[in-house]
Request: fold
Amino acid sequence: MKRLGFFGGTFDPVHIAHLRLALELKAYCQLDEMRLLPAHIPPHKGVPSATPSQRLAMLQLAIQHCPELSLDTRELLRDCPSYSVETLAQLRAELGPQVSISLAVGGDSLANLHTWHRWRELFQYAHLIVAVRPGYQRPQSGPVAELLADSEVEVGQLHQVSHGGVVVAELSQLAVSATAIREQIASGYSAQFLLPDPVWHYIQQHRLYQQAGADQ
Ligand code: ATP
Reply:
């Protein structure tokens, strides 16, 4: 069975922690392909955000020499934000039942998974891969604890079926965040080496993130 992974995020901007995590998850979960899935960001969000086409350009620059990663722009190029469950339903309809589909998210997303729109339905279409830091404390009660009790599988079993499993991947993660990068740039500091060089040059050339966000 073919194994596809989708790594969702805002990528505003994409940075080395995203790229390392995507590569490491691809290897850890033995995926045939790992596709970065940038989200649409509503323009009223109070942070200095690059436009969808700028985020896309940065992602393209970031992975131009990385054949192991690719891009899926279906959410980014839509006119409105889309729910993960709808994107996964669409992917499942396109790819058919004989493909293992996994959605990868950071550990911070696991804690509030039960607040996602129609979150239980995600598992009708895909597996969930959650990247957590070593030493991560599992929730002991509540909907996410119940989900793990019912659906967690070892990574070696994940692709025996096409959807419905949860893998918790303990991987060390780089201490880099897009918020910190935007703040650094707005304060006049360099963000070089936190992102691939072509992405850093693009940010400078287009004077991105130079204004502090409304929430700062
Ligand atoms: P922001 O600071 O704006 O929230 P971010 O980089 O944390 O940005 P996203 O661009 O949405 O957030 O990240 C995409 C995915 O990458 C998310 O699942 C997030 O959990 C994960 N991620 C972000 N930063 C790291 C990091 N340093 N290490 C591992 N995973 C990360």
Q: What stands out?
A: DSSP finds eight helices and six strands in the chain. Strands lie at 2-9, 33-38, 69-71, 99-106, 127-132, 166-170. The CA atoms of residues 152 and 166 lie 4 Å apart. The domain at 2-205 is CATH 3.40.50.620 (Rossmann fold).
